[in-house]
Amino acid sequence: LCAQATGQAAKSARTVVIAGIPDGLLHDDVMTDILMIHFQMSKNNGGDVEEVMYPTMKKGVAYVTFEDEEVVESVLKKDEHRLEDKRLSRYYPLKVTRYCENVFSSVTSVLNMSIFKDQFVLEDLIQELKKKSVALSFGPLQSNGHISVQGSFPAITLLRDFLLLKAKSLSEKDEREDKSHQRPKKRLQQHKLTTETSNFVRNADWEKQVIVLDTDMYHYMKYFFPSMFLVNGDVVISDVTDGDVTTVYIENAGSRSDAGQVLRVKEKIENQSIKLHNTLRKERIYFEERTRDEKWRYERVCKSLKPHYPSVLITHYDTHIDVIGNPSEVFEFTKEV
């Protein structure tokens, strides 16, 4: 079993995802041959190809597995991949990504920073946020105070929570201060975000906490880590799902003797979600016919394979099946299905 698991892990680590393949132009075997040639050529930073999976359940997508994991790194370093062949009328740009990239790769959010303009110089605030959140990509600051931020779901959520706490702290401070017509802008150097974070947490309402999770991540955690959501009678956990986002509410329903218990439960769930975010991958298997018989066949196959892939979560929908788990098991499970 150990040898098998190691082999599977190595295979997923040696695989890249190819998107942008022109579907329907050539026979599948011919397109597979063209892809094989492309990723074996030295000018494309390629190497020996073990397998090309095409077509797949995703239109215009193929999986290419190399014999050597180092070739993956080499292929990814190439700025642009152009699929060219005499059997094609023109070249087609390809997008090449690592198969082992996490399932929830990127989220884009628009932040309204205008609420901080009376307390901080927004440009300085943004620069400090960039230093604090190195995993995020920030767009230009707009004249209305809006800025686009892109990155992983946990990183976006942590930034959102931090800014909400900051806004709440400023609001409470305004209530305590005497009202004045003018308040000079304070340079960020006098109010470092890094030093303020702990104060905001101490001032937060520990009786109720909110966590925003990706819905798939929430389902995976509830299935494989149910104990995280089974707490004593003093803490109540509820959830509201809206599409791809699930909001988890953690409240203190008992005595106030341990006000920090709610916060500890929140931190435990958050830490586990961040850990899983960096290790999980999702594949979606679409139904072609969408008939009851086809769905039944897929369900039967998934049920028979599930014991061989213990860490995979399978979720059935009307039009597709979602498979979530570590990259190696998801890769092999989807291939077998």
UniProtKB/TrEMBL annotation:
Q: Which GO terms describe its molecular function?
A: RNA binding
Whether Transcription regulation counts among this entry's keywords is: no
Question: What InterPro entries has UniProt attached to this entry?
Answer: Nucleotide-bd_a/b_plait_sf (IPR012677), RBD_domain_sf (IPR035979), RRM_dom (IPR000504)
Q: Provide the alphabetized UniProt keywords.
A: RNA-binding
User: Which one Pfam family would you cite for this protein?
Assistant: RRM_PARP14_3
Q: What is this protein called?
A: RNA-binding protein 43
Q: Where is the RRM domain?
A: 14-101
Task: Tell me what organism the protein belongs to.
Answer: Balearica regulorum gibbericeps (East African grey crowned-crane)
Q: Does the keyword Nuclease apply?
A: no
